[in-house]
Design brief:
By secondary structure, this protein is of the alpha/beta class. It has one domain: Response regulator (Rossmann fold, 3-Layer(aba) Sandwich). The chain contains 4 helices and 4 strands, in the order βαβαβαβα. Helix 1 crosses helix 4 and helix 2 crosses helix 4. The protein starts with 5 loop residues before the first strand and ends with a helix.
């Protein structure tokens, strides 16, 4: 009997940067052992800088798109990770035994200046990699 993959949903407000990078990073770091999704409480579009900084580490998220969190209500989810404070406050209740985790990352798109904004995207990406490495050690499914 094969064990089912751990199903993880990462949320932020716009599902444009932090949660999109998280979806790609978790898929990459888990080597396919985890079913990784992302959504937003107010979805918009994937930020081109998120795509760019992920390409820098060889992870292509260019085919990902912003999705509303409502799309995942009623679907089997094991873990919900919020990566911004607003999403944590506005996260709907998921039925069943769903582990909730909150990681507060600042919005890199809100940073002023092109060089500083790009650095902020890289910092969030690198922070997510560190957090997901810890997460995967704690969830060895």
């Amino acid at each position: 009997m094969t064990e089912t993959k751990l199903r993880v949903l990462t949320l932020c407000t716009a599902n444009s940067a932090r949660s999109q990078m998280a979806e790609g990073i978790l898929r990459w770091l888990s080597g396919g052992r985890v079913e990784s999704h992302s959504a937003g409480t107010h979805p918009s579009r994937v930020n081109p800088l998120a795509i760019r900084v992920m390409q820098e580490i060889g992870v292509d998220i260019s085919a990902q798109y912003s999705k509303p969190v409502q799309e995942f209500i009623g679907k089997p989810i094991d873990v919900v990770i919020t990566v911004c404070d607003s999403a944590a406050e506005n996260c709907p209740v998921f039925p069943g035994r769903v582990e909730r985790i909150h990681w507060s990352f600042p919005d890199p798109a809100a940073v002023e200046g092109d060089a500083a904004r790009l650095a902020a995207f890289r910092a969030v990406r690198d922070g997510l990699i560190e957090r997901f490495r810890e997460f995967l050690r704690a969830h060895p499914r």
